[in-house]
Specification:
The protein has 265 residues and is of the alpha/beta class. 40% of the residues lie in helices and 14% in strands. Helix 1 packs parallel to helix 3, helix 1 crosses helix 10 and helix 4 packs parallel to helix 5. The protein is globular and about 50 Å long.
Length: 265
């Protein structure tokens, strides 16, 4: 078993706060085919306008696989406060509109609260996702639910809604630090896989390290990889601008994903 001979990408927000035009050019020069855009205030503050990102990135020769929206307020999709929940649902609709406007086919989103011990998912989350999903279906934008602190949140919504526009984003780092049985979620929902966040860690924190620099069992992941996945293999890694140049980091990142594709189990 091997990973597919797919295009390879890296998250555009990879640790260097330089203008997106520079980052995109460096990503392309390193050998990557695609990227994922950080659709958040940090990128807006760094670049000026999120609406400028897609053209800048495409002008560099990169494909845009998806936009990645913030995690920290995911709990509001389950809020018991109707106005809070509506505001977050409406924000997801705006992000879907952004995808549609810029011809970006996928949006990676989060359903599990960003806290150490998330509560069990509730019907309020289902109500939110149902409304967002109907909007996404109308816009023909795929929602890819990322596994975060509790993978049962992904189970909860994918078991409820069977739609071509509600899919799965597999995050290898989250899987190996927050799941007692890593790769089970990949085996269960691999047929719904639409996006990837591939990165390594030391076994306790969400380090976002390059593959093969931490403790993740990559052979186990490859052995359980869905045979039908043809999408981009996307790294979600973060470097340290105090330790190396962006060029050096991206070169190492590209080598790591090529090595990952070469492993046979």
């Amino acid at each position: 078993m091997k990973l597919p001979d797919s295009k390879v990408g890296i998250f555009s927000w990879f640790g260097w706060r330089i203008h997106i035009s520079q980052r995109a050019q460096l990503i392309k020069k390193a050998g990557f085919d695609a990227t994922s855009l950080w659709w958040a205030d940090e990128e807006k503050a760094n670049t000026g306008s999120l609406d400028d990102l897609p053209k800048i990135v495409r002008d560099s020769g990169l494909e845009i696989d998806n936009i990645h929206i913030p995690f920290k307020e995911a709990h509001l999709l389950s809020s018991e406060n109707p106005s809070e929940r509506k505001k977050m649902v409406d924000l997801h609709k705006q992000w879907i509109d952004d995808c549609s406007k810029h011809n970006i086919g996928k949006l990676v989103f989060h359903t599990c609260p960003d806290c150490p011990n998330p509560p069990a998912p509730t019907k309020l989350l289902l109500d939110s996702v149902e409304e967002i999903l109907k909007f996404a279906e109308s816009a023909k934008v795929i929602l890819a639910a990322e596994n975060t602190r509790k993978s049962d949140y992904v189970d909860f919504i994918l078991e409820k809604f069977d739609s071509d526009y509600l899919r799965f984003c597999y995050d290898s780092g989250h899987d190996f630090i927050w799941n007692s049985r890593p790769t089970d979620i990949l085996k269960k929902w691999g047929h719904k896989l639409a996006a990837t966040h591939l990165h390594d860690n030391k076994g306790s924190d969400d380090d976002h390290m390059l593959p093969f620099t931490g403790k993740i069992d990559w052979r186990k992941i490859i052995s359980n990889w869905p045979k039908d996945y043809k999408g981009v293999l996307m790294l979600e890694v973060l470097g340290d601008d105090k330790l190396q140049s962006a060029e050096s980091f991206l070169s190492a990142a590209f080598k790591s994903i090529i090595k990952l594709k070469s492993i046979e189990t």
